[in-house]
Write a structure and sequence with these properties.
By secondary structure, the protein is α/β, with parallel strands linked by helices. Helix content is 45%, strand content 16%. It is globular and about 50 Å long.
């Protein structure tokens, strides 16, 4: 219960601070500058959420130079396994880039956090409504083509027991339609902070984020694209098993 209280208080006070100071500034900037600043402040909020839980965050890049040299305009999609509500703060804090997310529709109504997700050009996906879901995917494709990196969780839901679920092939339309770059991310440890369906949050947990090498979709064969969801899942699952 202490963890939940600390997260709630931290989120509230940081939200008040960044909203009063930065929302007026964002409103005066052009779209690109405004989104970049909003994503920076979303990262700031996420880092404080992890600090309030005393998370021991470990980050490993398999090839940082290859990722750092990527052209954002080519379209960058980070693909990550999904364990907990703490996944977004963990991934946002770990990555070098300022990112947005394809997130579940329910997060659009979250207090505090959702305002900055909207300003950061996050896309809210309603999986119960196929037509709305297609519209959201198209919105995400447009954002990626504009040069805004996005994270997607292709399992579609949080794991019940920490294991990695099958990846939904539809999630990879973001990559195939943009002919962009996929970067697999493996996340381990957030499940130990807060399990699905539970309010309780544990403190002093270790969270590991492994960022693998980029996959250039435009360099893949037709067969490789067909098996893309399996290939990416295998990379993430292998890294998951190697994390101590």
């Amino acid at each position: 219960m202490l963890g939940l209280i600390l997260v709630s208080l931290t989120t509230f006070f940081i939200f008040i601070y960044i909203s009063l100071v930065y929302l007026p500034i964002i409103a005066m900037k052009n779209e690109e500058e405004g989104v970049l600043l909003a994503r920076k402040k979303l990262k700031f909020l996420c880092q404080w959420i992890l600090k309030s839980l005393a998370v021991d965050l470990s980050v490993e890049y398999k090839d940082f130079e290859a990722i750092d040299s990527l052209d954002r305009k080519k379209g960058i999609i980070f693909v990550c396994n999904h364990q907990s509500n703490l996944d977004i703060p963990a991934v946002t804090s770990a990555l070098y880039a300022n990112i947005g997310f394809v997130a579940k529709k329910e997060m659009e109504s979250w207090p505090f956090f959702s305002i900055w997700m909207k300003r950061s050009k996050c896309v809210f996906l309603d999986r119960s409504n196929p037509k709305a879901g297609i519209k959201s995917i198209r919105e995400a494709v447009d954002l990626i083509k504009k040069g805004y990196p996005i994270v997607i969780f292709p399992e579609g839901e949080r794991s019940l027991d920490g294991t990695i679920l099958p990846f939904k092939k539809g999630s990879f339309k973001l990559a195939t339609e943009t002919q962009g770059v996929i970067i697999p991310i493996t996340l381990k440890g957030t499940y130990g902070i807060q399990k699905r369906g539970k309010w309780c949050m544990k403190r002093h947990q270790k969270v590991t984020v492994v960022i693998d090498r980029p996959i250039h979709v435009d360099e893949l064969s037709r067969e490789e694209i067909k098996n893309l969801s399996t290939t990416v899942r295998d990379i993430i699952a292998r890294n998951y098993e190697e994390i101590k």
